[in-house]
Amino acid sequence: MYGMVSGMSADTLIIEQVNKIFQAPTGNVMALKGIDLRVRKGEFITLIGPSGCGKSTLLKIVAGLDTSYEGNVLLNDKPVSGPSIEKGFIFQEPRLFPWLTVEKNIAGNLSLKQAAVRKKVDEFIELVRLQGFEKAYPRELSGGMAQRVAIARALLRNPDVLLLDEPFGALDAFTRSHMQEVLLDIWQNNRTTMLFVTHDLDEAVFLGERVVIMNPRPGHIRSILPIDLPFPRKRTGSSFQELRTKVLREFEKVEEPEFDTGAGI
Amino acid sequence: MLQEGISKGAVAIPAEPMRRQKRIDRRFLIKFTNALIGWMVPLVIVMVWQAAGALGWLNPILLPTPLAIWNELVHLTSTGELIQHLGISSWRALLGFLLGGSLGLAAGIWVGFSYKAERLVDPSLQMLRTLPHLAIAPLFILWFGFGETSKILLIAKGSFFPLYVNTFLGIRSVDNRLFDVARVLQFSRWDLILRLIVPASLPNIFLGIRLSIGVAWLGLVVAELMGSSSGIGYIINDARSFSWTTVVFVGIIVFALVGKLSDSLVKWLEGRLLRWQDSYKGGDKS
Ligand SMILES: Nc1ncnc2c1ncn2[C@@H]1O[C@H](COP(=O)(O)OP(=O)(O)OP(=O)(O)O)[C@@H](O)[C@H]1O
Ligand SMILES: [Mg+2]
User: Fold this and answer.
1) ipTM of the complex
2) A54 ligand 1 Cβ < 6 A
């Protein structure tokens, strides 16, 4: 992160001039317009913006789940052509397999009979605090518990890039703050590149090295604010509050038509 | 007295196991009552029927009393005749069901997976599906004679379609959002089938199996009535020509019981394999 050599691209993820139009019988919706974003390897990016501004759409494009768009998305200098293990995805909803128990959902296509898998699954069940529910079916879980299973499933695979779509939205304040710590730990230990969508201003400032602010109609990046605070961060600190206010002000500002995004950095 | 026993027990044993014991009793009672409710309607009908017969209101040739039918059942069972014919019938139904059902399952999976296959074969299969047994049976007899082959093929033809249609439907109704999960986790094609599509369409497949078994029995009756020298259908047909109405009734009852039994078996299996399902079980289920 610190030894950036100029002239060589240290960006692991490059999003260039991405446009996305949804064709619907009721008319076409321009979900994304002119998205440009370069993410360094091991960087923690938080994406924030009002509902319907295309956050999920952008994440799905990066994941390779949606390939019908204009523009370029490059991961490690190669165009993204489909989903892969190195791109982990945590969906906005848990999306568990209802016929599998918690531990089998986390294991997915890995076999629990292998000692290494077993050990890792148990480790992650403990990490997301679901001990005692290993054998429970999804219908027996609360929304927040189900979401934690989905988080464990993605984390277990230790991806290079983790795409998270409002992963902590269904969690209570305490579990949420615990999961934020867990995620930061994993990020610092594994140098995972994070693209984290959230509705929560505090969360965006608490986690992100840069906060990307998006606006709707059509979905575009309004500005990108660096959060120059060392980890672990304190929510109560005055510099944290200052930055939080700065992001908030960015939202409240009336947008000028040809405002050059990123110029404020 | 019961009251006394419980209060005495409460003194001797700690409260916790006692309560669990009571709960099990209650659960058993609920199950028992539920079973009883199911039997209430037929029981009343049989009682009214027996009373009407005993009063001489019914012609015994057309409608013998339940008691007379029961006696016939006991008699036929004791001679071993009934068991022997039932064995033959069950064997035919089983073979026909296995043949037709497995082909239906395979075809359903194939067509379910491929849009091209659907376009290619589904229209023809749908056309064949509506052909009634009675229209096909003479042709089968012409081709394969009166032997076992034509009977089993007739049963197989019936069993094929419910499994085909429901397997196809099950595969096509797999949640697309779970497909995305499978793609993100990089499931192989094999994983996709075994870990997503099969479990997701299992409820439909089970429905298909139950319907197929029902149709298998139906085909069996048609096949055995058309021409046969053994099996429950033969017994019924034979008794009809001699106006042994009690035997006809015994045959019908045996068909009903075996049909119900096979259905219960599949339902039990379904309950075990689909424990994960979370669906509406009726508003007044206690
Ligand atoms: N499959 C689709 N077909 C048509 N339009 C779609 C589809 N998916 C999304 N859209 C549209 O694209 C826009 C962006 O949707 P998206 O789900 O990306 O929003 P979001 O920022 O994730 O919102 P939220 O915060 O509520 O999750 C919305 O206007 C939505 O109506
Ligand atoms: Mg969204």
Assistant:
1) 0.83
2) yes
